[in-house]
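In the current project phase, we have settled on a layout for protein records. A sample record is reproduced below.
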Amino acid sequence: MEFTLLIVDDNEIVVCSLSRLLEEEGYRVLTAGDGRQALAIVEVEAVDLVVLDVNMPDLDGVSVLRSLRHDHPPEELPVIMATANGHSEDIVLAFQMGANDYITKPLDLPVVLARIRSQLRSRRPQSSGPAPKPASMGEIGVGSVLQERYRLESLIGRGQFGVVYRATHLQLERPVAVKLLRTSLERDVTSWQRFHQESVSTGRIQHPNAVSVLDFAVSEEGVPFMVMELLEGLTLEKELRFKGKLSASRCAQIVIPICEVLAAAHDLGIVHRDIKPQNVFLHHSRRQEVVKVLDFGLAKLIDETFGGPEMTREGHPGTPAYMAPERYSDLPYDGRADVYSVGVVLYEILTGQPPFSVSDGNTMALALKHLSEDPRPPSALQPDISPQLEAVVLSAMVKDQEIRPEARQLGIALAVAVGLEPPVSLLRDTSSTPPSDAAEPRPQDSEVEEERSSGSGEAA
């Protein structure tokens, strides 16, 4: 069986010597001279392990590791850091960020080979056949047919709870995305409730900027699955990874539709609770870009008992870097918690970095920043941000939710700040018009056309 290894180092001597050794051992070896090239390779190649240098120009190894861990957990894609930095704090940081192993230079090649073998010992090659089957899902995988209707064609991605496949609806001959829960119904009732809530929440939001749920069922093996529209394109997180930051007009093209779909969700009493760049998808459809908000699996249904107390008070579900201050307490919250998260996303889009961060991954320290610190004005990091736009960003990140704007108000203010006409759906009187009558998505000028591949599909 052939494993595919990726060597990332700007030192050609290290790359050549290590590649030669690994190829002699029967491995398929890919190489990258910088971090951005490495991320691009992982996007298109089924890589089984990465040997990653830390000190590289432009995008260092720690940043590459952080980016990889957004999409690939340590058990899925082992990463061995290789660097001349032998300080204990550097080693601790690497492990905190998800490194599987850490070796120092000059490299002892037999030791490197032994550590690579150790990491690969329990893995099967990704490049040697069909995608690995998710845990606790029996024989379900590529080629399986669910409920005699949906044939799984290829793996799109895996997360903590779900596995997403590109599939074909056999009766309609239509491409779809199928998301399966990574556990059986009998073994994990809580995960089943969360998964079912995602389908219900998403299904209730009939909006062009929400992913359409087409079906929800349980396979013959007892595995719940959800059928969704198939998306083509990339996430906002990936666009920011490649471009760093975006212009004010591009920012508005992306964030105003987010405000539109959140306004519709909030009108229905649904709070998303996990707005972040990874959950914003830039879908390419009929030569138009349509922004899609993904993953309503953490959604809270306000004033309803759906799912029981454990589904609405399960600690503080969400992503700490984007959570509103009130989310860290036991106090009531509403859709304005999502608005705070949108404010954090706005800040990151315009400046290229989040308003608050910690170097050691300490969630408590990050929570304290959101609770008590004011962010630096975005114009301090990006001087060409207008005072009007800066005011919109900071208004969304006000600590007191009582004076924070609602999603509808934020979308209107953002449009005005960049000189656009606010969408009709945000100006509409919701007391007389259901949110499901939202306007059709508008064509948007895309700056990422060259980064898309018409054959790559993703879904929530």
User: Anything to note?
Assistant: The two ends are 32 Å apart (CA to CA). The CA atoms of residues 19 and 29 lie 6 Å apart. The chain has three domains: 4-128, 145-229, 233-458. The longest strand covers residues 150-158.
